[in-house]
Amino acid sequence: MTTARCMFASLFVFAIMMPIAAQAQSFNCRTAERPDEILICQSPRLRELDEIMASLYFSLRNRLYGAELAELEGSQRAWLRSRIGCGRDYGCIQSHYRRRIRQLRNY
What we know:
This protein is 79% helix and 0% strand.
């Protein structure tokens, strides 16, 4: 395979995978305005934690109905308000994500 073909193939795979990665996050970094969101977008580790949390949350949300779904959504809103309260405190945000990930895994 020529270098040009190899490069094209790599770019093609990247282009296909890019939307999948972007959808895994819980919010769009292009529209981030709050201090916590901006810090998450600037930090590879916090972005990774956000993607893990979002994947767990959306997977659970898609399997639940009725009161269980309402409870999950309510707890997610409460968690988000709490994370927003961290502002630009990296440790606080990281701790919130780790705790929420544990909660969702044990749900």
